[in-house]
Amino acid sequence: MNGLVFLSDISKVYRSRRREVTAVDRVTLGLDPGQIVCLVGESGSGKSTIGRIVTGLTDPTAGDLRYGGVSARSMSRRELKASRLAVQLIHQDPYASLNPGMTVGATLAAPLKRHEGLSGTELSRRIRTLLEDVGLTPSGLFEPKLPHELSGGQRQRVVIARSLTVDPKVLVADEALSMLDVSIRVSVLQMLRGLCDDRELAVLFITHDLAVARQFGDGHTVAVMQQGRIVEHRDTATLVANPEHDYTRDLLRAARHEGLRSRHSPHPQSVPATNAPAMPPGR
Ligand SMILES: Nc1ncnc2c1ncn2[C@@H]1O[C@H](COP(=O)(O)OP(=O)(O)OP(=O)(O)O)[C@@H](O)[C@H]1O
């Protein structure tokens, strides 16, 4: 199990001349196809560092990172590059991650040409399908647009479409929807979840907000991080209804405090915070 990506006893220490920060402290975590793990914790708890380790942007200080059961340490450069291409990162800020001078069509065409060798009608067909998959229809309307001509939600849909161009097996979404308005966030969240289910993608979904994790991670698991450690990792519904760790309870309270509690909840003490409808099963 956990064949796609596996972090075994991973630690990351950032060292400078003046101080040493243990960002990640002996974390073990894995992802199989179609599996979603939501990583939740307050700012500075080490979530992004884990995301960066999984995507290969940061090397761990200790522990073993495995792709497809093979240790990254024992891979050739070429194998490592291929393994990392199968892990795509969706950034928080769609403004920063899109080239302002490139149309939507060109943004998607570039990786399709480079990595898949596509051209001509096959290239056009893939661009059209990707735009439809992320809900940007009619696709012909969006292809010639520049990022500044799109809304925040549309931009993030383009970023998601671009991450799918290389046919990844794993997505790392690091606060990917936190810059969007709540109403837009819900629809993008549902679209992303649907795509992941349809394609059996494994997802590491990083968020500070347990209410968002509860929605996206419905039917899967949530891992709670505090000071570099995973203090609780359980089935989403169980963790939210019956948190074991004080810190998880604090996060639940914080989510409620943000006013995201379900208006329809019959058990306000035991049900997570959200004012958005829970996603239908399997979406
Ligand atoms: N490049 C770096 N150099 C030094 N310290 C770092 C570096 N990156 C992160 N840190 C520190 O490591 C700790 C964990 O940071 P990290 O960004 O992983 O947490 P996080 O939970 O994702 O927080 P946030 O939600 O604010 O991004 C923090 O104390 C942070 O200051």
**Shape assignment:** globular
Q: What is the number of helical segments per DSSP (H or I, 4+ residues)?
A: 11
Number of strands: 10
Q: Extract low-pLDDT stretches.
A: 260-283
Query: Looking across the biggest beta sheet, what order are the strands in?
Result: 6-7-8-3-9-10
The first-level CATH class of the largest domain is given as Alpha Beta
Portion in beta strands = 15-25%
Mean pLDDT: 88
The SSE order reads EEEHEEHEHHHHHEHEHEEHH
By CATH, the architecture of the largest domain is named 3-Layer(aba) Sandwich
The whole-angstrom Rg is 19 Å
Structural class: alpha/beta
Kindly report the name of the CATH homologous superfamily of the largest domain.
P-loop containing nucleotide triphosphate hydrolases
The CATH topology of the largest domain comes to Rossmann fold
Largest sheet: 6 strands, mixed
Question: What can you see in these coordinates?
Answer:
39% of the residues lie in helices and 23% in strands. The chain is of the alpha/beta class and 283 residues long. The two termini are 23 Å apart. Strand 7, helix 8 and strand 8 (202-207) form a beta-alpha-beta unit. It folds into 2 domains: 1-86 and 170-177 and 200-276, 3-Layer(aba) Sandwich (Rossmann fold); 94-167, no CATH class. It is built from 11 helices and 10 strands. The longest helix has 18 residues, at 182-199. The strands form 2 sheets. A 6-stranded mixed sheet has the order 6-7-8-3-9-10, with helices on both faces. A 4-stranded antiparallel sheet has the order 2-1-4-5, covered by helices on one side. Residues 14, 21, 23, 41, 43-49, 208 line the site of adenosine-5'-triphosphate. Adenosine-5'-triphosphate binds at residues 14, 21, 23, 41, 43-49, 208.
